[in-house]
Amino acid sequence: MNTMEEYLNRLKAAFAEEDIEDFNELKEYLLEQLDICLEEGQTEADVVSGLAPPEEVAADYYADLSLDAAINAKTSVVPREEIKEVFIQSQKKRMQKLLKAAFKVLKPLLLLLLVASFAFFLAYTVKELNEERNLAGIPTILCVLLLAIILQVIKGWAFEKRKLINGLSLGLLLVGTMMLLFFSATGQLMYTGRQYYKEISLSSNNHAAFSLDSDADVEITTVEVSSADKPSLMVKGRFKESDIKKIEAGLYDNKVNLTLDEENLFDTFTRTGRSEVIFFIPKGTILDNFHLGLSRGDLRLLDIQTKNFDLDLISGDVYAKNIIADEGNIRSDYGDVIIEESAMNLKVKSASGKTVITGMLGDLTIEGNQGLSILKFLRSDNVVLNNHSGRMILEDSETKKLTATATDGQVIVKRTNGDLSLVNESGKIVSEENKGILALKNGSGPTIAVQSSKLNARVSSQSGFIKWLQDPSQSVKVTASTETGELKNDFSDVSGKEKYKIDVKSKTGDVKILKKVE
């Protein structure tokens, strides 16, 4: 026998059919040993001649099986220590067999995952090299290292090429390490773009519009300039080459519509940092549209007249003052929104930030989750406040109709005139010194009202505590009832002929109508 193939054929013939799986494991082991010996310079014939005869190897295998049978027999005479050692070795072999079987099953899946990852990072590298003229550091390194791992995985399927594959894998590993050291030393692991500055001027004030979307961190400011100037904007910071080309190739007549730093999978290793954008708006110019869609940023917006005012911000703060618009929409997930001295019909949607609106004229709708809303000096026909678990405070305002609803937050309305409807499920309702028609409805939370003046009111609760404090000099007829709770009404003897009436009902909660004491 001069070849391993002949040796394995004779060895297989010596094994029973039911033991062929054990033969295959032994075959893999012998082939691995052959590769090692070949790498050390031995010939295949030398390796085969140094092996025990196939029949002898098979005999040893079946002798081990006989020993296992003796160990497991009820009349075993094998020493306990030997039985324990054989049992341990048997368990190790079983575990190795199980791991090998699992690896055989998972090996194709692992290879598929590795190839898919390699293809993605290769596409990433080619795309960035083509569009940004930049060799992507991390994706390139990962391509090299993944290729080295893939070669090692497929090595078992190419026995005659193992020596070459091992050499290629080692070379790729060294190349990947050298590239990692180089990119780290030069600060090029992440693509940071290049420094760029550009002023963009519109050709006309008529129907001028600005629209800017960006997934990068942006600081935005508006500046009012002379009415003789044209609307313009300035961009400054680090930008990708593809975005710079987009800015340079844009056609700007009376509109700017830019989308910069748009995030996708091929920007995973891009870090351009914060950029700055300044809008220069001539005094008296009425824009058709002013839109900002940002992932991160801080906005300081002053003195804007526009038909449509639209802000869409994931994180960051907004400060706006003297905004005059037909319609306004602001969406902010995590930032604070502050608006002062403005006029528009405004809708605000905020997840967890703080919303402060003061001195605003126009209808207002606020949708919140768990943030804080502070509203002062509003002049609105219609105000709608919806909050889940946050806190809503309205003070010193005029409205024809206010509707405020919450789940378990706080609703506080003070010194406001209008038809006021406050609804809560389990949170707190506070009404203080309001005028108009008041409707308070609570599920299980407390309801507190303080009044010096007269008004008509309806207060109801399922199980929450109700407390109404009324100035005795402005006494009104109060009708109060509760089915199972404690009831106290200091105004029960007031004549029913009063123009103003208060109706208080609770199913199971306590009700206290008390005279207000200064």
TrEMBL record:
<dbReference type="InterPro" id="IPR025164">
    <property type="entry name" value="Toastrack_DUF4097"/>
</dbReference>
<keyword id="KW-0472">Membrane</keyword>
<feature type="transmembrane region" description="Helical">
    <location>
        <begin position="170"/>
        <end position="191"/>
    </location>
</feature>
<keyword id="KW-0812">Transmembrane</keyword>
<feature type="transmembrane region" description="Helical">
    <location>
        <begin position="136"/>
        <end position="158"/>
    </location>
</feature>
<dbReference type="Pfam" id="PF13349">
    <property type="entry name" value="DUF4097"/>
</dbReference>
<feature type="transmembrane region" description="Helical">
    <location>
        <begin position="101"/>
        <end position="124"/>
    </location>
</feature>
<feature type="domain" description="DUF4097">
    <location>
        <begin position="215"/>
        <end position="371"/>
    </location>
</feature>
<keyword id="KW-1133">Transmembrane helix</keyword>
<protein>
    <recommendedName>
        <fullName>DUF4097 domain-containing protein</fullName>
    </recommendedName>
</protein>
